[in-house]
Amino acid sequence: MKDATPFITRLTQSGWFFISPWLLGFLLFTLMPFVASFYLSFCRYDILSAPEWIGLDNYIELFTADPLFWKSLYNTFFYALFAIPLGIVAGVIMAMLLNLEIRGVSVYRTLFFIPSIVPLVASSILWIWLFNPQIGLINAMLGWVGITGPTWLSSTAWSKPALILMSVWAVGGSMVIYLAGLKNIPVELYEASVIDGAGIWHRTRHITLPLLTPVIFFNLMMGMIGAFQYFTQAYIMTMGGPEDSTLFYGLYLFQRSWAYLDMGYASAMAWILFVIILVFSLLVFKSHKKWVHYDH
Amino acid sequence: MITERSKIIFKVLGAALLAIGLLFLAFNPSSQVTRAYPDREEVVFWHMWTGEWTEVVNRIVKRFNESQEEYEVVALPIPRSGADFKFLLSVAGKTPPDVMAQWRSVLPAWASQGVIMPFEDLMSPEELEAMKEMVYPVVWDIGSYDGKFYGLSVGLNIWALYYRPSHFVEVGLDPDRVFASMDELDAASEKLFRFDASGNILRIGFLPQHFHGWLPSFGGSLYDWESGEVTLRTPANLAALEWMQGYTHRYGLDRIIRFNSSLQSGTGGTMDWPFISGAYSIAFDGQWRVEQLARYAPNLDYRVMPVPPGGTEGLPQAGLVAATFMIIPEGAKNPRGAMEFIKFWSGIVDPDRAAEFYTWGGWLPISQEIAEAPAYRAYVGRYPQFQVFLDILPSPNLTILPPIVEQNYLMDRMNQMEQRVLRLSEEPEPALQGLMIELEREMSKRRERP
Q: Does pLDDT of A73 surpass 60?
């Protein structure tokens, strides 16, 4: 505006100045690669020579001639299908338990939260040991009850379930958010329901869970994005093996780009992943009117 | 409530912190490379050695810097996992090192992409010819791509069979007898296996791994040097793969996985090698183990023998040779200095002097001259097991990986294929066929480039 006071102008300037590091970072390191990768997905590009336009070839090749693409997609969906619901159920149950008024509850909360702040690399190494078929703790415990445990990460049948099992370990992060959601539920609702004679099951079913749905919705979205981008644990623990059974989409994308310098192809993969996540996010968003309750 | 005074204090504190931070960044001693000879031309050398090996590299670099007055080599260790793409990005960004030591399947791809410099640009034809005359034929082959020479080896790797004489004696085998055929190896292995009462493996006699390493002994090959074609589905290759799978059939996949998983510490260190603890009686491994055993298990009684010929087309003293080789990136600021350093280390100019470097790292020499140098002879005198590898070196039955652009891809997919076959998920013949299809698809993808 022409008649904006100098003070406001100064404030605006400072505002721009203060967000400029973030803004520049966003433009240079997020938006630009984002746009560039879209262009590159229609090219053959190996970093060293100029990108060469090949139209839809990368996409056609991916969908029609690359079995590893489908394999990695299958592995990723398999993981997401089990890990996300399991994470939600475990997180909610744990949050409800840790919402009880018992002695030392804050100590328990801390204990269950700690795994989620352990660096992924460190926890992955730790879990390699836990899953060791011969000297690992998990099979040792199974052995106490007379079960010969599977070979976990060395088995094509058990490698994915092992990683899903491991994902529950770090559920503490979402548990804290559920806990905050639980604290937000007005106590008078419970009081009223108790007076009306509702038992614990009815209170959970008709008060706690419905009023927790906004938080569940949030964690579902985040969990979904995380699951589709699953990478670090597989990279460290299995490198895609055995027999490509843990070759997740993110891992295959990484191999394509950095091991074979197939940047155009990898960009196409990245955009397919983007569309997949977008579609699923939209579906969840569309459905949320039916099951997410915002009003008290 | 923020007062005017506290505002000023904040500003002063902020400015002071910023200044300290900048000063720290500017004068942080660890961010600068200390030059011992600042007035000389700098030769930046990247390598991927870590731990005890860094020390060896530094000693060689020091020797070079002391040997002349024109150049100073500055060695920079690069973490292995990101080394290749760091190198490529540095070339693309026009700030490459002057020389790099490599051992991965990169030479054909990088040569074809114009990332590395042919030695023809830096050496006269006479010099090159003299070098070709001097080195073992495999050294020339490993460094060549499409008629030009791109990488000079500074150490060769060959694999052979390490075995424990005490285990042999224990089961009534003669430790002095070298296996004449793969059947003898199988029979010995059968005797050396140990199981507990419930059938779990207690000791592995022998277990084959690394398909490409076995091919030459079966008379197989991955490449037809005459036609320039990759050959995967040959009877000899199939025989090798079937032989390998036979071990899983005999001893059981589940048992093998369980036994092997109990051996690993997961650190990938020297002590992870199950041969040292006696968990394996015979192990197929490279010559560098001799040096490691001398260092970490000096009292271990072991011997080495060459891989026997296998199948109907088998060859003696055969094997796949890999190398650590020096490359000079395109765009290097000081390629001449890099070349001098390579000549120095490899022993092209002074084999007697370089022989010592080879002994420091436990590397196999690249030429007969170096192998016969006094320092190397003394080394072999100390570790007689090394002689077995030296005897294999001049053999005509040695091969190298196919000089194709897709070498890296082929090796990755071949490992996966081997895994599927050894885990009994796929039969050898369709597995080789599938690998060929995969490779052809990858090749056609790249060939489409005009």
A: yes
- B261–A154: do the CB atoms touch at under 8 Å? yes
Q: How far is CA A28 from CA B6, B92, B315, in A?
A: 36, 19, 58
Q: Is B76 exposed, middle or buried (0-12, 13-18, 19+ CB in 10 A)?
A: exposed
Tens digit of each residue's pLDDT (9 = 90 or more) over B301-358: 999 999 999 988 899 999 999 999 999 999 999 999 999 999 999 999 999 999 999 9
Q: 3-state class of B329 per DSSP? A: strand
DSSP B3-25: -HHHHHHHHHHHHHHHHHHHHHH
Q: How far apart are the first and last CA of chain A?
A: 43
Interface of A with B (CB under 8 A): 44, 46-49, 52, 54, 57, 61, 65, 125, 128-129, 132-135, 151, 154-156, 241-244, 255, 258-261
- How close is the nearest chain A Cα to the Cα of B177, in Å? 35
Per-residue pLDDT tens digits for A32-49 = 999 999 999 999 998 888
Reported residue count of chain B is 450
Is the pTM higher than 0.95?
Answer: no
Pairing of strands B282-286, B159-163: antiparallel
Burial bucket for residue A21 (CB in 10 Å: 0-12, 13-18, 19+): exposed
Buried residues in B327-343 as b, exposed as e (16+ CB within 10 A): bbbbbbbbbebbbbbbb
Report CA torsion sign: B86, B88, B89, B94. Answer: positive
- Are the C-beta atoms of residues A175 and A136 closer than 8 Å to each other? no
Could you tell me which of B104, B161, B155 has the C-alpha nearest to residue B364?
B155
Distance, in Å, from the CA atom of B214 to the CA atom of B189, rounded to the nearest integer, reads 16
Q: CA of B258 to nearest chain A CA: how many angstroms apart?
A: 6
Q: Which two tokens stand for residue A234?
A: 């597989």
Measured distance CA(A258)–CA(B84) in Å, rounded = 9
Distance CA B80, CA B82 (A): 6
Q: What is the DSSP letter of A109?
A: H
Strand-strand pairing, B41-47 and B71-77: parallel
Number of other CB atoms surrounding residue B298 within 10 Å: 7
The two counts, helices (H) then strands (E), for chain B are 20, 16
Cα distance between residue B358 and residue B375, in whole Å: 9
